[in-house]
Specification:
20 strands; 24% helix; 2 domains; globular; alpha+beta; 6-stranded mixed sheet; 8-stranded antiparallel sheet
Length: 374
Amino acid sequence: MIQTLAVENYRSLRRLVLPLSPLTVVTGANGTGKSSLYRAMRLLADASRAGAVAALAREGGLSSTLWAGPEQGSRKGRPVQGTVRTRPIELRLGFGGDEYGYALDFGLPRPGVTMFNRDPEFKREALWHGPVLRPATLVADRAGHVVRARNADGGWDSLEIRLTDSMLGELAAPEVLLLRDRLRSWRFYDQFRTDRDAPARQSRIGTRTPVLDHEGADLAAALQTIREIGAAADLDEAVADAFPGARVDVVDHDGRFGLRFHQHGLLRPLDVAELSDGTLRYLLWVAALYTPRPPELLVLNEPETSLHPDLLPPLAHLVSTAATRSQVVVVTHSATLVGALTKATVLTLVKEASTTTLDGQGLLDQPPWYWPER
């Protein structure tokens, strides 16, 4: 389980070290940095897929994702202004868990004869055992083009190699491969589409689907997979909990799967194209959270979107059930959903002098955390 999440110089997240639990809810007013925290976690996962540099490029490049406030912080609650950076460019992301910890440090490359001088470069990257970085627990380390990994004798194997992305995607050391696979299991869901042309409203060729696509395109197949693995009763209960007397059936049209939603009082079942946005979105959450292949970490961004308040307690039940099989982080601004997640650790973000902080957290309250030095 991840115990600590650390972010530095990412958008409004100047320096943030957060404790995580089996079920963590991140909440706060609009503009306090919840979305930035969600994106930072996705960027960490992208490092394991050799796509962190491309992910930064999709956000506008390193300069667009860096902390935009003053370098000197604030004095007496007032920000110290400054338009020219005097310190090295640093974007740091990391986590510490009960088994492994990992951190990366992005910067800009030294000027050279190339048109890619604005590409982010991995200045430091480290993998260690346990929640806190210590020299004795370090198992893999990268400084520029030099990569070291512990060998079976406890010593170090070093090589100089020009990596274009994270060492997690290119280094074959056993500990690195293990962490890479675990990071790749992390799953993110961010506001499913439910418009008329949404992928979830289209019929698709049905194949066994233990993991719902992030767009929900294979909804019918995912629900049928849940039913056939022996969780039919849980599926029916989840639907009836939100819509008393209702049930969902999956139909086969010459290999293409579709949904039929039976609801009390209606003379015929509704096709998926006829479902309201809220009903469809709830069914998508059922498919995502009752997955037969639970990930190590499941991160949900504003799952309450388009849901009627009456559906939030059933949604909270789905989330709590998922948290018995995966570590779950929920980013939300819904007080109703927060209140319904009674067993969650609630982290409230606030904005102070343009900087995101954890409400009530002082310097001595932060979990122990150390960045690898450049």
